[in-house]
Design brief:
The complex is a heterodimer of chains A (114) and B (113).
Chain A (H helix, E strand, L loop, with lengths): L2 E3 L4 E5 L4 E3 L2 E3 L4 E8 L5 E7 L5 E3 L5 E5 L4 E6 L8 E9 L7 E2 L3 E6 L1
Parallel strand pairs in A: 2-12
Antiparallel strand pairs in A: 1-4, 3-9, 5-6, 5-10, 7-8, 8-9, 10-11, 10-12
Chain B lengths: L4 E3 L2 E4 L5 E6 L6 E8 L3 E9 L2 E5 L6 E5 L5 E5 L8 E8 L8 E2 L3 E5 L1
Parallel strand pairs in B: 2-11
Antiparallel strand pairs in B: 1-3, 3-8, 4-5, 4-9, 5-6, 7-8, 9-10, 9-11
The chains are: A mainly beta (114), B mainly beta (113).
């Protein structure tokens, strides 16, 4: 069964600094990996995904993520954080076979200070 | 706007009651997913439907049931409600499984008193 770990409950970063939100995963086969963001009282918004190909994927709002197969990681990054990036971030994984469920991590709260 | 519509936005009910949550997927999406989000359990997958058929099941209680209708909208039925069922219930849709991202509605906040 697939699983996702987000080891940090919260990440604090100053505006203008680079940010990283960590994610590691476990699947039996090949992974489909996703990052979502959730703002208060809203649903999850899709940021980016890795299916195959380049290990560095670019997504919405200047975010990118690096897929590392040997470390089974898919960390979310942004070169320069904005206060408006403050939100709850979820990593998710699904196996690439059949109708597999999409499993989410526990979420990491990102707090960007002015 | 994700294109996924969930009703109602808020629901307050008493223990032992039954409620129905409704979801209309994005136009063209055949798959519908239900998730429960609570403070202590995170985002828990409940069930997935594809074109009217159940495709995957997660940690869904026997008191809960769901279905997807021919017009592709879906309903999640919660019965014999307990205080612990209070949570945010999300519906999501996608064209199919695999590498397609899920698009989430804004959720139904259920409060059981």
């Amino acid at each position: 069964a697939q699983s996702v770990a987000q080891p940090e409950d919260q990440v604090n970063v100053a505006e203008g600094n680079p940010l990283t939100v960590k994610c590691t995963y476990s699947v039996s086969g090949n992974p489909y990996l996703f990052w979502y963001v959730q703002y208060p009282n809203r649903g999850l918004q899709f940021l980016l995904k890795y299916i195959t190909g380049d290990n560095l994927v670019k997504g919405s709002y200047g975010f990118e993520a690096e897929f590392n197969k040997s470390q089974t990681s898919f960390h979310l990054k942004k070169p320069s954080a904005l206060v408006s990036d403050s939100a709850l971030y979820f990593c998710a994984v699904r196996e690439d076979t059949g109708f597999q469920k999409l499993v989410f991590g526990t979420g990491t709260r990102l707090l960007v200070s002015p | 706007d994700s294109g996924v519509t969930q009703t109602p936005k808020h629901l307050i009910t008493a223990t032992g009651q039954r409620v129905t949550l409704r979801c209309s997927p994005r136009s063209g999406d055949l798959s519908v997913y239900w998730y429960q989000q609570s403070l202590d359990q995170g985002l828990q997958f409940l069930i997935q439907y594809y074109n009217g058929e159940e495709r995957a099941k997660g940690n869904i209680l026997e008191r809960f049931s769901a279905q997807q209708f021919p017009d592709l909208h879906s309903e999640l039925n919660l019965s014999s409600l307990e205080l612990g069922d209070s949570a945010l219930y999300f519906c999501a849709s996608s064209p199919q499984g695999g590498g397609s991202p899920l698009h989430f509605g804004n959720g139904t906040r259920l409060t059981v008193t």
